[in-house]
Amino acid sequence: MSQDNRSSFDVFEHGFLDPEAPLIRIGEGELGGKAHGLVHIREVLNTDLNMEQFPGITLDIPPLAVIGTGVFDAFIKENNLHEVVYRDHISDEDLTRAFLESPLPAEVLTDLRALVEQVHTPLAVRSSSLLEDARYEPFAGVYATKMIPNKGKDTNLRLRQLVEAIKFVYASTFFRHARNYRRATGHTEEEESMAVVIQKLVGKHHGERFYPEISGVARSYNYYPVGRAKPEEGVVYLALGLGKTIVDGEPCWMYSPAHPKVEPPFGSVEKLLKETQTDFWVLNMGEPLQRAPTSETEYLLRENLTVAEQDGVLRYLASTYSPLSGRLSIGTGFPGPRALTFAPILVLEEIPLNRLLVELLEICQHALGAPVEIEFAMTLNPHRFALLQVRSMLAPTGETRLEVEDLRGEHVLVATENAMGNGTLETIRDVVYVRPENFELRYSARIAPELERINERLVAEGRPYLLIVLGRLGTSDPWLGIPVRWAQISGACAVVEATGSNVRVELSRGSHFFHNIVSLGVKYLMLSSSSRYTVDWEWLDRQEGEEETEFVRHVRLPNPLQIRVDGYSGRGVIYKPADL
Amino acid sequence: MSVIDDVIAMVQEKDPGQPEFHQAVKEVMTSLKPTVDKHPEFVKAKIYERIVIPDRVVMFRVPWEDDQGEVHVNRGYRVQFNNAIGPYKGGLRFHPSVNLGIIKFLGFEQIFKNSLTTLPMGGGKGGSDFDPKGKSDREVMRFCYAFMRELYRHIGPDTDVPAGDIGVGAREIGYLYGYYKKIVNEHTGVLTGKGLEYGGSLIRPEATGYGAVYFAAEMLATRGEEIAGKVAAVSASGNVAQYTIEKLIQLGAKVITVSDSTGAVVDEEGIDEEKLAFIMDLKNVRRGRIREYAEKYPSAVYYDGKSIWDVIKEQGIKVDLAFPSATQNEINGEHAQALVDNGCFCVTEGANMPSTLDAIKVYQEHGILYGPAKAANAGGVAVSGLEMSQNSLRLSWTREEVDQRLHNIMKSIHRASLEAAEAYGHPGDYLTGANIAGFIKVAKAMLAYGIV
């Protein structure tokens, strides 16, 4: 056990996860990005953040124990796990099992035993990889996090839970999607090594459930600005319970910190009720439902709003629907179905959370010299804000930057100065488009089932595609565009919403499916009727058709398109394959 | 060329740039062809030409300030289309797509919808290209105030009674009414869709579902049948479906299906009151998936990713009555054939246009009872009318009183549709009957007024 000599914290004489000792290292090696980010930002906040501006809230960064990357390297080497890792077609489950069956280095176990002897509260065991370095690369959500109850008198049992969780996080380094992500971002397997962060889980006990009232993610830059929100104003996601809801892209409350009182664009109270968060994740402090060490959710439970109501946690988080009047009122003063709008905090400003987030984003962005993403959790009464992670939002393999010149030329299929999302897609060969020569708004309701059929086939084949439509996509009014539901176009990883001479309507900007588009990172390019750019329909028509229906055409190109969106300028372009 | 074709051509020529309105006129007018031969007096009085021109169109600017103090300006509209049988009545739509053509299209259709309810309500529609999405509550409030600042002079409880529509829900109605009351200094029934505390009506959530069942009961009665003892399939699990199921249970039917966008449940033992309470809690409070129903009740089978109509087709499930309550085009020709093959003899539409044209053809070919949406789901519009009545009377009826009146209205709609179908040569065809019945009442009133 040693003090992190790169930080200025005095950790001698203190135990594990003690607020007086913000970081304690176990084993040798690097600490990884997550740990570095937190250590760095702790120092910055100590000097730059004045919490007196936010009466009623206390802020802390939960202390960490970090297992250095040396332990990971030794674990892999001593157990010969490289051989397992590179085995062809090994499933994530089998991989995890092999890791779980391999012992951790003995000297680490001594420290871990000391930790569980000292700490008797739930723990979060998170990855802190080298590539995850907070200053340069976002690997958010690529590796696993496991929550464990760490409860009871049986130290051996608690040690076993902790050790299994660490091994699980190690194994996640080699899960399929992690390897794909590294490959896609130009990293080799050898570059990666994993430190593990152990933190006290932020939350409160409610019977046999343990969870924070609020989990959140705030970004200082928003690639999907909805309505009047501007990208540089950032975006905040709030959820009840553990942050898994947000990380997994489940329904949560999304808003611009510059306009905290503006609801996401649901369009009606009924839709709001349907699309806001109804389920939430908690740590199960009771008997585990089953022993499942290969599962990230072994100790987690999914609960619903009825349970939250019983736990008495909705006071600051909910609005209440009156079915008789059809109105939503802020708070829980009346009986009725609850909706997680966070309105008592965001609209009535009963807790100055939004102001704090704005300040934190600004300080962190300044400190890291780049747009940032922070992850946090809050418990209420008293109101305690815990900063869990800080990382840069910079793209991993160079930036996708587009200048006006990049939008012109023969090789451009679609270009726009009005795009949402960020990054480059270079694997898409399938294009599904609405044939402009046959398109009339009065037929738009008939197009939805045609799109659905093609979508079903492409999803089954595992082929994500580019979708090009005319008019407002997802509108309920067929006179404005194609009235599809997201499920009918779920395989589209990029969407072009265009207008035409007989389709001069205001585009939806994805607002009908904003949650899906944001959580799936769909690239969304818009060509309004005033746009100077257009779609090269003739080129599309010249490509060999895979399927043609009355209104829709599907073409499969021999080589992939290049779909690029510059999240900072809002420019987007789709280049035809080089050889066509 | 017939007068109908002439009118369609005239509208296209005189009202350019309004494709939605042209389409509506074409559809409605085409359905009225059977009335032309029978009513030379309508032709002579140019009723067809007159009915496609609004009594009045009001267009106005709506300037308002956002939270940052920036000024915005939107376009406001109120099309007072026809008040032959009662004060103009129709919703306000706040949506960026709103333009004069769309408001005229909606207002034109509203004349016949309202008339069909047999209540004294004329047709109108209004709105603005303001988008409440992405606005704060206070901005919506300021916009509603600004909108009413002009609209108030054109409406009144005996003149024009707007209601909600897309983008205008209970919140907007509250702001609009609050401002009207403030500047006119009158607490009158000038808007419907109001909150219960300030003049709204009971039974509004239930109206469409209950109404559909009442309509079905009337259709069955024409064949000496009744709801009691029948096996019913209901799709969806939202408001309309829940109250359709509730009324069906009350009237003694056995409802065996329920669904949502993720799948369908068949419960051969039937959904009783306790199970319905579970569905209501599941869908309204917890807002979970319908498969939880099958997890709770072992008698139920869940079909993932299927619609009720898929399941009936694939599993050959026998039902007597079908109540499509989900969405447009949920029943296609194959579904309709499967329903008929499995003994279904009555389809009542709670949703808007849930049957495709192919499906309707199957119903008609097999002579089954078919209650089209415009008649069978008129319960919602009817309760708006009942809200007006209560406001005029300065009374708030009990649930039972409103329900009883709704029942009577649905009976009247049924009778009017049936009689019109019979009188104009399409006996038993409720679709044609409903179109014609709505028109005839308005046309007769217009005729009575002379040339005004």
What does the secondary structure layout of this molecule look like, with pairings?
The complex is a heterodimer of chains A (580) and B (452).
Chain A: E1 2-3, E2 23-26, H1 32-48, E3 57-60, E4 64-67, H2 69-78, H3 81-85, H4 92-100, H5 106-118, E5 123-129, E6 145-148, H6 155-172, H7 176-184, E7 194-200, E8 204-206, E9 209-211, E10 214-219, E11 235-239, H8 244-247, E12 253-255, H9 269-275, E13 279-284, E14 300-304, H10 305-311, E15 318-322, E16 327-330, E17 338-340, H11 343-346, H12 353-368, E18 372-379, E19 383-392, E20 412-416, E21 419-420, E22 423-425, E23 430-434, H13 444-460, E24 465-470, E25 492-498, H14 514-520, E26 523-527, H15 537-542, E27 545-548, E28 552-556, E29 562-566, E30 571-575
Parallel strand pairs in A: 2-4, 3-19, 23-24, 24-25, 25-26
Antiparallel strand pairs in A: 1-2, 4-7, 5-6, 5-7, 8-9, 9-13, 10-11, 10-18, 11-12, 13-14, 15-16, 15-17, 18-19, 20-30, 21-26, 22-29, 23-28, 27-28, 29-30
Helix pairs in contact in A: 1-12, 4-6, 5-6
Chain B: H1 3-14, H2 19-31, H3 33-38, H4 40-44, H5 47-51, E1 56-65, E2 71-82, E3 88-94, H6 100-116, E4 123-128, H7 137-151, E5 160-163, H8 170-184, H9 204-221, E6 231-234, H10 239-250, E7 254-255, E8 257-260, E9 263-267, H11 273-286, H12 291-296, E10 300-304, H13 308-315, E11 321-323, H14 333-341, E12 346-348, H15 357-365, E13 369-371, H16 373-376, H17 379-393, H18 399-423, H19 430-448
Parallel strand pairs in B: 3-4, 3-5, 6-7, 6-11, 11-12, 12-13
Antiparallel strand pairs in B: 1-2, 2-4, 8-9, 9-10
Describe the model.
The complex is a heterodimer of chains A (580) and B (452). By secondary structure, chain A is α+β, with helices and mostly antiparallel strands. Chain A is built from 15 helices and 30 strands. In chain A, the strands form six sheets. Chain A has a seven-stranded mixed β-sheet with strand order 21-26-25-24-23-28-27, covered by helices on one side. A six-stranded mixed β-sheet of chain A has the order 1-2-4-7-5-6. A six-stranded mixed β-sheet of chain A has the order 3-19-18-10-11-12, with helices on both faces. The longest helix of chain A has 18 residues, at 155-172. In chain A, 52% of the residues are buried. The model of chain A is unreliable at 1-13 (pLDDT under 50). Chain B has two domains: 3-187, Rossmann fold, CATH 3.40.50; 207-367, Rossmann fold, CATH 3.40.50. With 452 residues, chain B is an alpha/beta fold. A five-stranded mixed β-sheet of chain B has the order 1-2-4-3-5. Chain B has a five-stranded parallel β-sheet with strand order 7-6-11-12-13, with helices on both faces. Chain B has 19 helices and 13 strands.
